[in-house]
Structure formats: structure tokens, C-alpha cells
Design brief:
rod-shaped; de novo design (two linked rop proteins); 0% strand; mainly alpha
């Protein structure tokens, strides 16, 4: 009888361990899904930027420095697909700041603000920035849940045994870059 009780306890502990392992796997997958959502939105923004730049080049020919900075940072963003969330956050924060400066400079060009192409790209960029913000919140929530599971007892025993690591948050380092660029000219 004692043997059956011990066996039942061992089975219950094993089932609980499997449950914890599966929970860690689920949380890790949610972090991956969240990062994929951020990556999709960042790619969408990177794809919009050349069209936006083309629509403003003719109007802003003497604002070459701003246009070149946006182009340079867009290239960095596209090439940073394998970067960590922290590294990617720094690059994307700089790009957001440069886009904000581009939009601020565009305020000085009434013909540009009236251009239908520019207005369409401005609206698409604003929508994309909002989507990036939503994707970042989802990812950071998934990362938080994984980190809690990796650090909490007893799931930390399973996490350390099977190589589950904490996820890095996707944050913007420069406080000035935390604001979404203002792209409304109304």
C-alpha cells in the first residue's frame, strides 16, 4: 500500500512537472509570436519610408540632411533583422525620431502638405506606428509572462533544467524617441 502511495505521489509530481514544462513552452512561443508581430510592422514601416521620401524629395531638396538621415536609419533597420530586441529598439527609436523630424520639417511646405500622395503615406505611417506600439505591448507582455515563469519557483527548476531563458523586452532607450512621431498636419 505504501508503495502505491509513493508511486501516486511520484506520478503527480511528474504530471505537475510536465504541466510546468508545457507552460514554459507556451510562454516561449508567445514571445516568438510577439516578436514576429513587431518584425512584420517594422518591415511595413521600412517599406513605406522610400515611398514617403520620394513624395517629399521634390519639395524638400534643400533639406538633404534630414532625408539622408532617414534613409541611413531605414537601411540600418532593414539590416537589423537578427538583432536582439534591445538592439532593435535602439535602432527603431532612432528611426522614429528621424521620421518625426522629417514630418516637422515638412510642416514648412504647404504644397507638400496638400499633396495627396504625401497625405496617404503620412496616414499609412501613422497607422503603422500605432501597430508597432500594439505589437510592442503584446511582445513585452509575453516576455513578462515568460520571465515570471522562468524566475518563479517551482517552474524555475524546470526552466533551468531545460534551458529556458528570460526574454529581453523591446524598449526604446532614448526618452525623446519614446513618443510616436507626430504625422498629422491638420
Amino acid at each position: 500500500m505504501t508503495g502505491l502511495i509513493v508511486l501516486a505521489i511520484i506520478a503527480a509530481i511528474a504530471l505537475y512537472g510536465v504541466s510546468l514544462y508545457n507552460s514554459l513552452v507556451k510562454n516561449r512561443q508567445m514571445v516568438g509570436e510577439g516578436w514576429s508581430g513587431i518584425d512584420v510592422q517594422l518591415k511595413r514601416r521600412a517599406d513605406l519610408i522610400p515611398n514617403l521620401l520620394e513624395s517629399v524629395k521634390g519639395y524638400m531638396s534643400h533639406e538633404k540632411g534630414v532625408l539622408e538621415e532617414v534613409t541611413r536609419l531605414r537601411t540600418q533597420s532593414v539590416n537589423a533583422s537578427g538583432a536582439t530586441p534591445g538592439e532593435r529598439g535602439a535602432i527603431e527609436g532612432a528611426l522614429s525620431g528621424a521620421l518625426g523630424r522629417l514630418m516637422a520639417v515638412a510642416e514648412n511646405y504647404p504644397d507638400l502638405k496638400a499633396s495627396q500622395n504625401f497625405v496617404e503615406f503620412q496616414n499609412a505611417l501613422e497607422e503603422t506606428e500605432n501597430e508597432i506600439s500594439l505589437a510592442r505591448r503584446y511582445y513585452n507582455g509575453a516576455a513578462r509572462n515568460l520571465n515570471i515563469a522562468v524566475e518563479s519557483f517551482p517552474s524555475n527548476l524546470i526552466a533551468s533544467r531545460f534551458g529556458f531563458d528570460k526574454a529581453e523586452f523591446f524598449e526604446i532607450e532614448d526618452k525623446a524617441d519614446r513618443a510616436v512621431p507626430k504625422v498629422s498636419f491638420q
